[in-house]
Amino acid sequence: xxxxxxxxxxxxxxxxxxxxxxxxxxxxxxxxxxxxxxxxxxxxxxxxxxxxxxxxxxxxxxxxxxxxxxxxxxxxxxxxxxxxxxxxxxxxxxxxxxxxxxxxxxxxxxxxxxxxxxxxxxxxxxxxxxxxxxxxxxxxxxxxxxxxxxxxxxxxxxxxxxxxxxxxxxxxxxxxxxxxxxxxxxxxxxxxxxxxxxxxxxxxxxxxxxxxxxxxxxxxxxxxxxxxxxxxxxxxxxxxxxxxxxxxxxxxxxxxxxxxxxxxxxxxxxxxxxxxxxxxxxxxxxxxxxxxxxxxxxxxxxxxxxxxxxxxxxxxxxxxxxxxxxxxxxxxxxxxxxxxxxxxxxxxxxxxxxxxxxxxxxxxxxxxxxxxxxxxxxxxxxxxxxxxxxxxxxxxxxxxxxxxxxxxxxxxxxxxxxxxxxxxxxxxxxxxxxxxxxxxxxxxxxxxxxxxxxxxxxxxxxxxxxxxxxx
Length: 471
Ligand SMILES: Nc1ncnc2c1ncn2[C@@H]1O[C@H](COP(=O)(O)OP(=O)(O)OP(=O)(O)O)[C@@H](O)[C@H]1O
Ligand SMILES: [Mg+2]
What we know:
The chain is of the alpha+beta class. It is 56% helix and 17% strand.
């Protein structure tokens, strides 16, 4: 049943049906038109030959001087007319007496009277035959009037009609079939690019996501579909690539710390150690485990951000108080390095509070790590383009190398000198800015970085402004 339901009918079947639905009535109407025009034409010729015959007869009748002469000689003329041209003839004198009668059928008086009064031929049906009848006046040689009645046998109309009908049906059916067949052949050719496209998509597997559907010889209607499919392939390929990078990054980054811990632990176990020595190894391991677990959490966050399509719960967030909270959290570290933090401006933005805090914290942690001891950081909040609020975090320091600039937002990217500046904050994984970027994208915003060598480094977060609630 399903194969026949309206939705799943093949295009070819629909097209064929459509052609048949168009071709049959069109051909039938054309055939009927031809039939009626032929019928009209033959009627004209029939009337014309009757008129010619009447004229000839008039001239002929005038050569007979008396009714008697006509009755004697006219018979053979009438028989000739009837035999050769299927025209029956009756000639009557003024009193109505028949002088010549060569008529196969008895024509009723009223039919004759009809033709007399109109002067035109009348059609009359008798049994299975039909006649066209013309009555005309003529004069004998002596001037006395006679009436001519001519009847042309026009055959059996129903037989003629039947013959035409079957011709029309045959033309409509064969013509229709021809049109449908030719249409289907053309359609099959037209659908060839679609078939090629289908075959091509079947060939594309996870390992061949780089393949694209060719659009050079694709018709315009299919080009859009091919473009759409190619875009989809591009997105799939990107996702696969990200997944690939993600797992290889993860494996690569886990290898070194785990190898280090393994080596350290094996060395410690290779001979008897003092309690202090064991403690030192365990403490170092704990520190490393903390780092690893932080990294795994960060990676999980990025993986979720990568794959999640769901919209964030955005609420009006007072940015300044979030900055204050983050700075408060970093207070001990700031005190330790003797770093001051200047804060300027405030604004309400549409954001997820915890994620905004996390982005600010990641920038602040970088700024603290890279700023020299005793320096000053600058955090400012101000409107930028209409509808957007810019939060800038500026720190002095050695800056970011120009070569590093394009990479700093990539996962696991650590700039040159990152290890030296690691210091007390612990060596980073290079995930902080990737997370900031992911968070800003989740907000529909963005993050930018500027850095002057041996000058100021400035990161800017662009948040959508919270629209003031209108009464
Ligand atoms: N304020 C800054 N000043 C100078 N360089 C910076 C600054 N912020 C980031 N960078 C450079 O960008 C790199 C990437 O920063 P990111 O925050 O992603 O990683 P990280 O701080 O090294 O590690 P993590 O944030 O995961 O602890 C850093 O290694 C550093 O080289
Ligand atoms: Mg960082």
